[in-house]
């Protein structure tokens, strides 16, 4: 099969794991997501995942009000580690081999982030799950996705969301909202379109690393993206 990408960095938000629940990890939802990932891994695509933590804790959440921001952010990063372990376990159940690498040292739980090792795993066909974001407070897992994507020379950063791309307006509220097929980084930054946060966007722009936004809940959408078929919204220079 013809593939548009050999190596992708997939950004999964914590919210994606919640399904219809109010918080936490929904088992059926994570299994659905893993099935989509497994399908492209079986086609030979090298997949690295950056996992968010917003389903468990967010440094800027109401629960963090009054907390020291850096402390709250470290809690957020630890939340991403829980998600990474749940994702790894769901992959194990469908015989997709993965490794978790954490940006914070948690040696009993996960390997540390070592770029060379991550690259080797990818070449071996293993999925690498990057946990704990960048390892720094005041950043997000979107920025971690841009950073790790650049570090491992991914050809694209794919942001998995609940909506199948970027729209001119909220498609749930405005029936006339149209989906952008392509956008430039400048358009996304200037118009403050909710693709990724500004730090992530400028990093991708400067590294000429395209971003694809698509729905992980649309069956086969990830596969269509890696085949280069029209799907979602692409942000490029
Ligand atoms: N976080 C951080 N540094 C990072 C990545 C994440 O401090 O490099 C913290 C931050 O508090 C953030 C939380 O971890 O709110 C969860 O990450 P994020 O909000 O990006 O998760 P998502 O929205 O993708 O679920």
Automatic annotation (TrEMBL):
Q: Which organism is it from?
A: Ferrovum myxofaciens
Q: Source organism lineage? A: Bacteria, Pseudomonadati, Pseudomonadota, Betaproteobacteria, Ferrovales
User: Which segments constitute the Aspartate/glutamate/uridylate kinase domain?
Assistant: 7-214
Q: Where does UMP bind?
A: 53, 73, 134-141
* Protein's UniProt name: Uridylate kinase
- The UniProt annotation places ATP binding at 11-14, 54, 58, 161, 167, 170
Q: Which reaction does it catalyse?
A: UMP + ATP = UDP + ADP
Location of this chain's protein in the cell:
Cytoplasm
Q: What function does this protein fulfil?
A: Catalyzes the reversible phosphorylation of UMP to UDP.
Tell me, what controls this protein's activity?
Inhibited by UTP.
The organism sits in which domain of life?
Bacteria
Q: In which pathway does it act?
A: Pyrimidine metabolism; CTP biosynthesis via de novo pathway; UDP from UMP (UMPK route): step 1/1
Q: Which BP terms does GO give this entry? A: 'de novo' CTP biosynthetic process; UDP biosynthetic process
* Enzyme class, spelled out: transferase
| NCBIfam families, per database record | pyrH_bact (TIGR02075)
* GO MF entry, a single one: ATP binding
Provide the alphabetized UniProt keywords.
ATP-binding, Cytoplasm, Kinase, Nucleotide-binding, Pyrimidine biosynthesis, Transferase
* Family recorded in the similarity comment: Belongs to the UMP kinase family.
Its primary localisation, in coarse terms, equals cytoplasm
* UniProt-listed InterPro entries: AceGlu_kinase-like_sf (IPR036393), Asp/Glu/Uridylate_kinase (IPR001048), Uridylate_kinase (IPR011817), Uridylate_kinase_bac (IPR015963)
